[in-house]
Amino acid sequence: MEPCPNCRARRGDATICRRCGMDLANLIAVERAAERLTALGVTHLAAGNPMTASDDLTRALGLYHTPFARLLRDFVREIAAQGARPMVNTAAREPPAVPRCSAQPIP
User: Fold this and answer.
1) Confidence band for 79, pLDDT divided at 50, 70 and 90
2) Is residue 58 situated within a structural domain?
C-alpha cells in the first residue's frame, strides 16, 4: 500500500496516517496476507499443483489486487485448462553433464 487510502498522503512505514490519523494496521495486515497467499500459490505451482495454486491466487486477489497475482492466476488457469503435465522438481534430479571443450586455453 503506497499512499493512505483516505487522504492519499505518503504512508512510509507508519501504521497511522500522519495527515488524517487513519489507522492503517488492518489494511497492512490484509495486504501481507495477500502476499503470503501469492507466495503459497507460487509454491503450489512449482510443486505441480496448478488447481491449488489457482485457488490460492484467487483468494489473494480477493484480499488485495496486484497485477502480478492476476497475471500469475491467469497463467495458472491456462496451464490447468491445457491439462499440462505437473512440473517436475528439478532439484531432485542430477544436473545434465556439461560437455568438455576441446579448445586450447588462451595464453
Assistant:
1) confident
2) yes
Identify the CA nearest to 69 among candidates 27, 28, 36, 29.
36
- 71 is written with which cell numbers? 497475471
Please, which residues have CB within 8 angstroms of residue 57's CB and are 6 or more apart in sequence?
37, 38, 41, 69, 72, 73, 76
Q: Each residue of 20-54: pLDDT tens digit?
A: 999 999 999 999 999 999 999 999 999 989 999 99
Q: How many domains does the chain have?
A: 1
pTM of the model: 0.70
Please, what is the Cα angle at 24 between 18 and 29, to 5 degrees?
A: 145
Give a yes or no: residue 102 inside a domain: no
